[in-house]
Amino acid sequence: MVDPPRSLDVAMATFHREERLLELMPLLLAQGETAADALGLEFDYRVLVVDNDPAGSARAAATTTGNPQVHYVVESNPGVANARNRALTEAAKTDILAFIDDDEVPHADWLTNLLSTHLEYGADLVAGPVYPILLEEPELWVKASGQYNEAHRSHLRTGEIITRAGTGNVLLDLRTVRRAGVSFDQRFGLTGGEDSVFTQQLADSGAKMVWCAEAVADHWVPAERATRTYVLERSYSLGNSGVRAEVYLASKGVDRVLTQVKWGVTCVGSVLKGATQALFGRATASLALQANGEMRAMGGLGGLAGLVGAIVTPYGTTNN
After folding, report:
1. 70 has which bridge partners?
2. Global pTM value
3. Which of 59, 178, 205, 280 counts the most CB atoms within 10 A of its CB?
C-alpha cells in the first residue's frame, strides 16, 4: 500500500484532432470524480492538454467546457517526447500523472482501476490495455494480419510485473519519477520508442511497475490506418525505433557492441523468416501467413536500418 494522492492529473498530448477532443474532454473530466467517489478519496484533479501545434489549434476544443479543471498549454517544439516532457513540467507539483492518447477513449472506470491498482500494489507505474476499434471495414489483408484483433499484452493479469510500457494508457507516481530523474528522450521524439526508453530507465531505477487488465482504453483506428501500406510502414517504423532503443539502453562499450550484434542477427533472421513465410502464404493462398510474414520482414528491415544509423520519423508532422 502507498499513501493516497493529494493531486492527480490526466495528461494528453494532441496534434490536429480537434473533433476527437470535443468528444473526449467530457469523458476525461468525469474520470476524476468517478475515481474519487469509487475509492473514497479526495484529491485535486486536472485534465492537462498539451497541444503540439505551435498555432494552438486545439485550444477551443480543449477548453470548450469552460471547466477550471482543464489546464491547456502549447508545446511548440515538435515531437511526442517534447509534448510529454511538457506534461511532466506542468505537473511538477502533482503526485500522480496518468497519460492517455488523443485518439483513445477511456472506459468509465479507467482511472479508478489505474489508481486502485497503484494503491493496492504500491506500484510506481501502472499500465493498462488499449483495444483497437476500427472505424471502418479494413482491407482483407489487414483483417488477415490480425494487427487490430486484440490489445497488446491482453494476456497479462492485474498485478503482474512489467519492465516497459507504452504511454497511451499509463499511470505514474511522479514522486518516484522525480527521484529517479528520468524524462522522455528527445532523440526518440519524432521516431517513437521514447516510452520504452523512459519506462525501462524507470524500472532500472528500482521503480515497481505493474499491469492492470481492467484499466481499459479503446483506440480509434481510422480508415487510412486500416490498410496494408500503413501497417507495413508501421512495422518498419516500430522495428527501427525498437532496435534503436535497445542499443541506446545498452551499456557503452562491449555490452553495446554485443547488443548490436544480437539485434543484427535477430533482424536478419526476421527478414529471412518473414520473406519465407510470406512466399509460402502466397503459394498456399493463406493471406494470414502472407500478411504476418510481410510484417515480420518489414520489422526486421526497419531494425537493420536503425543499426546502421537510418532513422524513421513517423512523428515528424503528426503525433500518431
Report:
1. 47
2. 0.89
3. 59
